[in-house]
Amino acid sequence: MVLPIATEILIPADDSVRLLSQLLEELDYTKLYRAYSHKGRNPAVSPKNLFKILVYGYMSDIITSRALERACRRDINFMWLLQGQKVPDHNTIARFRSGRLNEAVEDLFHQFVDKLHQLGEIAFENIFVDGTKIEACANKYSFVWKKATLKNEARLQQKIHKLLNSFGYPQNNDTPVTLKKMEDILSGLLKKKKADGVEFVQGKGKRKSQLQRDIEALESSIVLQKKYDGYNALFDGRNSFSKTDTDATFMHLKEDHMRNSQLKPGYNVQIGVEAEYIVGVDISSERSDQLTLIPFLEKMEKSYPWQYKNVIADAGYESEENYVYLKSRGYIPYIKPQNYEQMKMKSRKRSNIGKAEYMKYDSENDTYECKSGRLLKAVGISKRKSKSGYEAQITRYECESCEGCVLREKCTKSKSNKQMSISRTFINLRAESATNISTSQGILLRMNRSIQVEGAFGAIKEDHGFRRFLLRGKKNVRIEFLLMSLGHNINKLHNKIQDGRCGCYLHEKEIA
């Protein structure tokens, strides 16, 4: 006779799996159960228990479907989470993660963050934003470059123009031939073939007719044009994508061990952290952090009924567009200016006398005074449009006369008078942010940014070794990182309970 093992008594009372089960049990799984379309038939394993198993797997660095199946058969903690239900096979786990969780995982993540707010762990006051690049599950040699695609497409169009002109269809060389037009011409040629009774030949020693050659050349051109049209649709504002994972963009990763600046397919993962917990996640194909801040904050506003007061980010997020957005939405920016460190160095002030930040500005007359005491006056206004479509107003300043100036060589390389193009809006908003980070509160928040948000990435990438996504496609990558973030938050709460640090939002500055 074999007696069942009571796994309950083998798990310590302070084990993290008990905390996970308790917290996830209190969430609303309506959206998850709605993903099961069949009626009148219950799944073999409860979706709630499957979700717990997945989250605990990411907490324990067991993320592949086969490893999770093996853990459910051998690991006591996974057995306890199953609650006596049948062990799911790897196909069930894989389908659940990439299919069933698509609509529900973000809602469950936000519910958990709201639960942390109810427990007093999150105050929705200071959000620390940062991004990191994580490699996609794609071949690093499967790249498609936009520049090369446009170059090859232009060559193809020249060939098509020449081909259609030979058919008796005159073309304007400046206007590209559309795919529909080529297909219409091909249809006419095929009708001509049928009407004339032309037989196509293949093989060695057989001579093709001119009509056969024309039709085959046009068919191959149509195939190439379809390929380039598909590529252009996939670029979607990017300069590259991977054939293996078309949502991934080729970018520089820090895991460049050969130090040869090799580009790899990856995603720019943006997170918001408060009190060491991840409260927001966004997956972007943009290589630059500047263009990711506004979409991330807009997503946060839709996800929670509360809005953060202070936004703390590093210099990579500095732009006029971001400053204007933060001010219009009522956020207080704590963004480190890109020239913050240089402004504090006296040697920089002596060597960069030609830059606007080292000149005296007269706001009443809108003039700059250079080191020689000469005035630079506004001579024109223009617009500058960013990649996202934001238009900045640029004022152009020109010196009244640089003739005979002893500092001219240090100030400008121009043979004419010194000129500068400056956005006054950006200069003013940058000064406000610089003032914010220089206060005692700003210094404390800057210190916590490097501890909290970079600490979260350090725990995920170093402690858990999560440096490459397992799934492909932006949708599946988002699911995977939300599961990883949930696991990180539960581990963090468990550690805080063990260390007696619950309710601690900021690390105080220690003075020796």
List keywords for this structure.
five-stranded antiparallel sheet; flat; 19 helices; alpha+beta; 47% helix; 512 residues; 15% strand
Question: What would your notes on this structure say?
Answer:
Helix content is 47%, strand content 15%. With 512 residues, the chain is α+β, with helices and mostly antiparallel strands. Strands 1, 4, 5, 6, 7 and 8 form a six-stranded mixed sheet that branches. Strands 9-10-11-12-13 form a five-stranded antiparallel sheet. The longest helix is centred in the middle third of the chain and has 26 residues, at 210-235.
Summarize the biggest pleated sheet. 6 strands, mixed
Number of H- or I-type helical stretches: 19
Shape assignment: flat
| Rounded average pLDDT | 90
- Please indicate the percent range of residues in DSSP E strands (runs of 2 or more): 15-25%
Helix content: 40-55%
Number of strand elements: 13
User: Kindly, what is the distance between the CA atoms of the first and last residues, rounded to a whole number of angstroms?
Assistant: 66 Å
Radius of gyration, in Å, reads: 31 Å
The low-confidence runs, each spanning 5 or more residues with pLDDT under 50, are none
Secondary structure class reads: alpha+beta
Task: Summarize this structure briefly.
With 512 residues, the protein is an alpha+beta fold.
